[in-house]
Write a structure and sequence with these properties.
With about 375 residues, the protein is of the alpha/beta class. Helices cover about 25% and strands about 25% of the residues. The strands form three sheets. Strands 1, 10, 11, 14, 15, 16, 17, 18, 19 and 20 form a ten-stranded mixed sheet that branches.
């Protein structure tokens, strides 16, 4: 029987109360009759898919979305019984697992549709699927022509049930709403084609987090919030965002302190050279844990409620910070990489700005080897 270590030098703390709060804020802006499909792919954006899913379910979410069948099976094995939609591609070799675990595929091409229908014919009742329509993302999805061909030739397999119709917004957080409006129009055309062909589709979904806020006409029967569930958004500054609370904080501890003299260097390739006597703290966390290497000589952390700059290259398992101006620092002090100490806060958005990326990547990159501690909702 495995047990949690009594001391964790680096830990990600997940505030499930904040997760529930963010869900509530999103629900408040939904159109009547619209529900939430919680997106918990990529280990729930680094927060832990099982615990996140269980919390969402406790708060009334009855549909989840992941990218892969493997992600979904892990949820099933943890006792999650609600509907799980597979957003990513499903290969023919995965059909047995798909059916065994009662997973709902988002079908994106005609050949998969036909093959899936042949496999489903072994069952006693039509198997539910969602059709994904390409409306401007340039990624997965049936084109309008492919959709109309399927409908016109009546090649939608009778062994399948069209439970859902979906697409994905490419630029819902962009400054110009026109591309998204065009995608909505294309999606409406697909909906019209399907309905005119005699299909009654109970679940229609298009909007991601930004789409929920900016394009209420695209709420339909479901929305698929991802990053906003976890307390972040990428909306332009002209758009008022919901009141969100970051769900994850990331901390470590000071492992060693050393005083270096002018002219001495820190870490690989000598990218930091002291110009004055400098007190350096060594932290046992690095890029193997998900700390972006682009934070080298750019990022900051919080120590004793003060900001301390990262100095030198971020290493695989360690990083160094300058604590010269922070009095009283000792080995074992808590260091906040993401989170808040008193009035000082560092967010995943801050790390993303310093690293030249987005908060999604910062959160998803936090290694599974970093223990997650959960505060219950």
């Amino acid at each position: 029987m495995s047990t949690q270590p009594t001391f964790l030098p680096a830990v990600a703390t997940i505030d499930l109360t904040a997760l529930a709060y963010n869900l509530l804020q999103l629900r408040r802006i939904l159109s009547p009759g619209c529900d939430v499909m919680g997106v918990v792919k990529a280990n729930a954006y680094g927060h832990g898919a099982i615990e996140t899913a269980q919390t969402l379910i406790r708060h009334g979410v009855v549909r989840l979305a992941v990218f892969s069948i493997d992600e979904a099976i892990s949820l099933r094995q943890a006792g999650v019984t609600v509907s799980i939609v597979i957003l990513g591609p499903v290969f023919h070799q995965q059909f047995p697992d798909l059916f065994m675990h009662r997973l709902t595929p988002a079908v994106s091409d005609p050949s998969t549709l036909i093959a899936l229908g042949q496999h489903a014919a072994q069952g006693s009742s039509p198997y539910p699927i969602h059709l994904k329509i390409e409306t401007g993302m340039g990624r997965l999805g049936l084109t309008q022509n492919e959709l109309e061909t399927i409908l016109a030739k009546h090649t939608f397999p009778s062994s399948l049930r069209l439970e859902g119709l979906m697409s994905h917004l490419a630029d819902s957080d962009g400054s110009d709403p026109d591309p998204t409006d065009q995608q909505i129009c294309r999606f409406e055309r697909a909906i019209k084609s399907v309905r005119e062909a005699g299909f009654s589709v109970p679940l229609i979904h298009l909007s991601n987090s930004a789409g929920i806020v900016r394009f209420p006409s695209a709420h339909y029967s479901l929305v698929r919030p991802g990053i906003m569930l976890y307390g972040y958004h990428t909306l332009p500054p002209t758009v008022q965002a919901p009141d969100l609370r970051p769900v994850l904080s990331l901390t470590t501890r000071i492992a060693q302190l050393r005083l270096i003299q002018p002219g001495e260097t820190v870490s690989y390739n000598r990218t930091f050279m002291a110009k004055q006597p400098t007190r350096v703290a060594v932290l046992p966390i690095g890029y193997s844990d998900g700390l972006n290497r682009q934070l080298s000589n750019r990022g900051h952390v919080l120590v004793r409620e003060r900001r301390a700059p990262i100095v030198g290259r971020v290493c695989m398992d360690m990083v160094m910070i300058d604590v010269t101006t922070i009095p009283g620092v000792t080995v074992g002090d808590e260091v906040m990489l993401i989170g808040q100490q008193a009035s000082e806060r560092i967010t995943a958005d801050n790390l993303a700005e310093w690293a030249g990326t987005i908060s999604y990547e910062i959160l998803c990159a936090i290694s599974p080897q970093i223990p997650r501690l959960y505060h219950s909702a």
